[in-house]
Amino acid sequence: MSKIRRGDHSSEGEPLSAGRVEYLEAARARVRTRRIRRTVIIVAVLTILVLFATGAVGSSIARAKDLVDTAAIALAPAPGWPQQTGITDPDTVQQLSGAFVEMGGDSCAVYSMNGTRLNSIQSGYARPAIAAGKTRFVLYNRSGSELRVESRTQNLYTKTMDSTIYLCAVADAGQVAVVTDNADSAAALTVYNSSMQQQLVWNLTSEQGIPLRMAFSPDSRRLAAAAVTAVGGQLTTNLYALPLAQGDPVLLSTENSVPQWMGWLSNGFLLVIYENRAVLYNTTGGSIGERASYDFGGSTLVSVSAENNGVALLLSNGQTSTAVLLDGIAARIEEELGRPATLVVTGGLAKYVTPLCRHPLTYDPELLLKGLALLYQLNAPQQHHHPAGGRKPHGQNFRRHRPFRRERHETEAKAG
């Protein structure tokens, strides 16, 4: 039986017919196509396996859901405000991208900034708490072991931990940090990726402490943790920066004060507000540690507001914080009205606070009495008889266009 060689000639060297050559070329093309198809299938299967093993598929699906949520929020009708959220006693409100989540008791409601109700949750948790990122938030039970990862419109994951949950934090990219009780250490800090697959675990010792505050960096690559422990009968805070890629915590500072607030000003700088001062830390490079600080000088921290990589502090030293608060309220009132507002203040300390305010204020120590007198006049009988037999014409019992002037009683007139 003769063998056919590659080419246009047979084994005896005789040329093949045109039909035979065409048939052989078609067979070769089919073999090449099958080989390419098998290679593509093998590569695709391996790629899918790698993506599933690294969690990239779940992350892509989660990002796709976030994009769908963003589009749905943008296209939804805008009913506007005010709205009845159904939560009569709110405990906390946290901002999301284009929306916010409000929690009161075991109820949560998510609204878009234009007033559209996006989600409603009834957790049934005994001690609920929330931690919000950019497009999702975690609702967790501080006296239990269950947590729920929610997008702005739906539940993404529900997870039950092995022990009681202390604290949670959410990154803008979707990672979740969970601090739980641990039988073998002071606490366990577990970081999950955006598809809730475990990324790293850090078992903190009693010397390291239990995280009281946590915050992800803006690029979601590092986690700051302020862990509180007791040294010699005094509370001490150990501040750590945890790179998620390496997983080795870096000690930034140790303070003899409890942190009240913590947040990143950039990917390299972390701001921590303690009870008596604010400290800016450098978390990268060769100069890791305290970069700058501001002492409150005996003032009390009232509130912290952070936005656009800046932080505003409201400090109270008696009168100044009240003046700042009044100026803030005045600005918001005028913004809502769209025109300047006339503000009248009263009260025992008002005359001391008024000079500290930038907004013009009118001080009236008898404002309350004038209001009570006006209410009395509005509700008093319209007809009054006089001793001389005359009677005031109807409508002259009070004149609202004139400033109020206190009338003296007869006994006062005699005494004066």
Strand-and-helix sequence, N→C? HHEEEEEEEEEEEEEEEEEEEEEEHEHEHH
Note the total helix count: 6
| Total strand segments | 24
> Tell me, what's the shape?
extended
Give the fraction of residues assigned to helices.
Answer: 10-25%
In round numbers, the mean pLDDT is 81
Strand order of the largest sheet: 1-2-3-4
Q: Report Rg.
A: 35 Å
SS class: alpha+beta
Largest sheet: 4 strands, antiparallel
How is this structure best described in words?
With 416 residues, the protein is α+β, with helices and mostly antiparallel strands. The protein contains 6 helices and 24 strands. The strands form 7 sheets. Strands 1-2-3-4 form a 4-stranded antiparallel β-sheet, with no helix packed on it. A 4-stranded antiparallel β-sheet has the order 5-6-7-8. The N and C termini lie far apart (144 Å).
Summarize the structure.
It is built from six helices and 24 strands. By secondary structure, the protein is an alpha+beta fold. It is extended, with a radius of gyration of 35 Å.
SSE layout and pairing:
Layout: H1 18-54, H2 56-75, E1 92-96, E2 99-104, E3 107-112, E4 117-122, E5 128-132, E6 136-141, E7 146-151, E8 155-160, E9 165-170, E10 176-180, E11 187-192, E12 198-204, E13 210-216, E14 222-231, E15 234-243, E16 250-255, E17 261-264, E18 269-273, E19 277-282, E20 289-295, E21 300-307, E22 310-316, H3 320-337, E23 343-345, H4 350-353, E24 361-363, H5 367-379, H6 410-415
Parallel strand pairs: 23-24
Antiparallel strand pairs: 1-2, 2-3, 3-4, 5-6, 6-7, 7-8, 9-10, 10-11, 11-12, 13-14, 14-15, 15-16, 17-18, 18-19, 19-20, 21-22
